[in-house]
Amino acid sequence: MGGIGKTTLANAVFEEVSPKFECRLFLKDVSEKIKKQGDESLRNELLSKLLDEKEICIDTPSISYPYQDRLNNIKVLLVLDDVSDPDQIDFMGVKYFGPGSKIIVTSRDRQVLRNGRANHIHEVKKLNKNDSLQLFSTFAFKLLNPVVDFQDLSCKFVEYAQGSPLALKVLGSNLYTKSKNEWESEVDKLKQYVEPKISQILKSSLDGLGELEKNIFLDVACFFKGEKMDIVEKILSNYYMGAMCGIRNLVDKCLLDSIDGYHISMHDMLEEIGKDIVRQKCKENPGKCSRLWFPKDVDQVLRFNQGTVSIEGIKLDMSQIDKLQLCPSVFENMFNLRYIYFYKPEIEKEDWNPKLLANEVDSVSLPNKLRYLCWDYFPFKSLSSFNSKNLIVLKLRDGKMEKLWNEDDHMDLVNLREINVSNCKNLRKIPNLSGAINLELLHCSNCESLVQFWDENNLMDLVNLREINVSNCKNLRKMPNLSGAINLELLNCFKCRSLVQLGNEDDHMDLVNLRKIDVSCCENLRKIPSLLGAINLEFLGCYECESLVELPCLYHLASLHQYNLRLNGCYSLNKFPQVPSHFCRLNLSSTKIKEVPDSIELLHKLQRLSLRKSKVKKVSINISKLEFLHQLDLSDCPMIKFPEIPRSLTELNLSGTQIEEVSLPFDSLYNLRNLNMRSSRVKNVSIKLESLRQLDLSDCPMIQFPEIPGSLTELDLSGTQIEEVSLPFDSLCNLRNLNMRSSSVKNVSIKLESLRQLDLSDCPMIQFPEIPGSLTELNLSGTQIEKVSLPFDSLCNLRNLNMRGSKVKDVSIKLESLRKLNLSNCPMIKFPEIPRSLIELNLSGTQIEEVSLPSDSLCNLQDLDMSGSAVKTVSIKLESLRYLDLSGCPMVEFPEFPRIPWDSNPRRSMNTAHPSSRYRRCVRKGHSSDTPGYVGDMLEYVKKK
């Protein structure tokens, strides 16, 4: 039931418990927002707020892994208000939230909550008489109890409201400050209904509205619910005298509301009542309705040219009608038409076919009273010349226009506030807007044919312009002079790949209100104008500007955030930029910068500096003065000498450099914990830093084990020429992870009790290595070892053993600690002798022909992969098994195995019969709705059906 208080109750719980959660969000009107903006857009908005990251854009059905991982680390409180489909809950990614997270969902349908797997369902009951009286009094008297003289009348209204909080609020607000006679008159109105419904009670409250308030209420109900408050106020104020006051009165009467302070809203029940009031007046003849929104009515009026002077507004969900050829005179009889709102719901697929078509004409005649023109997929080549002085909003997204209007039309645009022509693929030019002195928003993103704006000699002072968005206009070569747009806050030129310059060569962007400039991926942009006057700039996106040679001085921009200066991939940038001294991070990777200058000392708060893949050969000694610098990345730079760096460093990356020798005595870089020299020229290493924890010397031309400190916990020597490793008990006593993958190691003797992970994969070893019992993970894949024999008392902590692609033929392992064993692609011909403790076993690609596992063997095994092996006969009776892969095996009979319930873990892929396949063949990551939970290969005789 609507208006019963579900949202209010959810909000009360949210406010009560939210301090216990690090991330909390109340998402109102989920179904309505998904219908308007699409589920992906709403999910991106949700993720941006939860992860505190701007402009997250995920356009796939599932959330990508990095975001999953981040969500899994936060405790979230989320309210999803007014959900109509259980899939909406899953789509928001709630299953990835961290431990302790709580999701509260409100819905009018109990089944939605059941199907959404709600742990607890609470039905919101109607308010009892005492609570109803208290709520009513709060709005009718601004007191907790009714005034004595109004006690009986209050009880009558409470009785009529039937415990509905919405009805109590509306009735109470409507009666506030009214006389007793007026109260009695309102009671008489309700007496006409024998048993009044909530809708009838609410409707009676509307009868007392003045003409102005009633018209505003009906306009919002039919057209503007959910739209931006400031735009709606301007549209209504342009037509109704005193509209702002009328809106405030409706808010005071609880008939209108505001979502997040920016969007106008009203309760669903009130919306339906408003629409019903309009429709009841012209049931039989929609052409005489003042407002049209019902698709069938709109279709009838447009298709049969039934428009009349009565029509003031039309709103149409174009997905709800069949294709319709429009004649150019379709609006000619609608002299009073103020609003045209033809839209495609965001949930519709991208390759959507337009429904309203031009009838072989270039333009359509529009009425002069038009205030709001929003027409997705506008089918005409241009707007006709019409009296546009009343026009406030012009939105023609995905339209077919080649031009908006002719340059000599002299359009009167004095009231125009917003232009949105995004995705108009044929639009070549934005015309003269000199008359649009009140224009605030100009959105032209994805206009692929757009080449230019207005002529240069038409220098316009668009003093109210706040946003310009021309992102993805790939043929736009030049932006106009914007020096007169003194209130500009946003300039978005992202991916304008042909853009050569912003304004003229000597232009200055002295725009004090400018907050954001994004010219990222503008491949041909060579220069950014002076920003001396843009003292409030917060964001400057320049990454992957391949032709950008230098930046203007940024040192004075105190508001510029370090995370919002993006310069990586500016391949032509050859000068170290002058950035604000408050920066803690700076990324200049993949630039042409050759030197870190002396002025680096000015960045006294710098903590992280990346010059990866730049041309840096020299680093100023002044960098050693940066006492807060912790991370320095000079990887893949053409350096030949170890740089002078501050002792504050904890992480240093010199991988891929030309440095040949590293010598670090005890008293140098005593805070360094992580040193990466991967793929450098280092041959000799002498490091005695007791602070060092991680050292990467992989793919270096070393032939001897390096001289390194005992403090190390991780060491990577993969790909080196070292042939022998001998580490007694008292050496490297803290080492936990040693990687020698693809090195030249043949002999290994390691007795370090601290060691947990050892990788010797693809080494030319022929014998099982001598290793400590402390190991938990061992990788010997790709080695020449032919036999593995591990009795009970050896390697008693080993949990994961990987022998993939080795020469192993005989296996006898009795380690009760072992959980995972990979023997895939080994030349084995019989099932190995392995411990009962195993959970995962991979024997894919082996020569094993028969598998027989009775119920008392391998009683913990959950995953068995035999894909691509020689298995012909299978008999498995393990009740613990959850995943079995026999794809690609030469089987001719259906295997014998237990009933396996579906594994709900999303990381697991299943081999299952796909019900829609004619041949019912085996596919990955499929779920069958008509099988009882079996997995495995399908038989040949099944394939022949």
Description:
This protein is α/β, with parallel strands linked by helices. Among the domains are: 6-115, no CATH class; 129-206; 211-280, Arc Repressor Mutant, subunit A (Orthogonal Bundle); 287-367, no CATH class; 381-580, Leucine-rich repeat, LRR (right-handed beta-alpha superhelix), CATH 3.80.10; 688-776. The protein has 17 helices and 48 strands. The chain has a 15-stranded parallel β-sheet with strand order 22-24-26-27-29-31-32-34-36-37-39-41-42-44-46, with no helix packed on it. The chain has a twelve-stranded parallel β-sheet with strand order 6-7-9-11-12-13-14-15-17-19-20-21. The chain is globular, with a radius of gyration of 36 Å.
Q: What's the structural blueprint in terms of helices and strands?
A:
Blueprint: H1 6-17, E1 23-27, H2 30-37, H3 39-51, H4 65-71, E2 76-80, H5 86-91, E3 102-105, H6 110-115, H7 129-140, H8 151-161, H9 165-175, H10 180-191, H11 198-206, H12 211-224, H13 229-237, H14 243-252, E4 257-259, E5 263-265, H15 268-280, E6 291-292, H16 295-303, E7 313-317, E8 324-326, E9 339-343, E10 356-358, E11 372-375, E12 393-395, E13 418-420, E14 441-443, E15 467-469, E16 478-479, E17 490-492, E18 501-502, E19 516-518, E20 539-541, E21 565-566, E22 585-587, E23 595-596, E24 608-610, E25 618-619, E26 631-633, E27 651-653, E28 661-664, E29 674-676, E30 684-687, E31 694-696, E32 714-716, E33 724-727, E34 737-739, E35 747-750, E36 757-759, E37 777-779, E38 787-790, E39 800-802, E40 810-813, E41 820-822, E42 840-842, E43 850-853, E44 863-865, E45 873-876, E46 883-885, E47 911-913, E48 922-924, H17 940-943
Parallel strand pairs: 1-2, 2-3, 6-7, 7-9, 8-10, 9-11, 11-12, 12-13, 13-14, 14-15, 15-17, 16-18, 17-19, 19-20, 20-21, 22-24, 23-25, 24-26, 26-27, 27-29, 28-30, 29-31, 31-32, 32-34, 33-35, 34-36, 36-37, 37-39, 38-40, 39-41, 41-42, 42-44, 43-45, 44-46
Antiparallel strand pairs: 4-5, 47-48
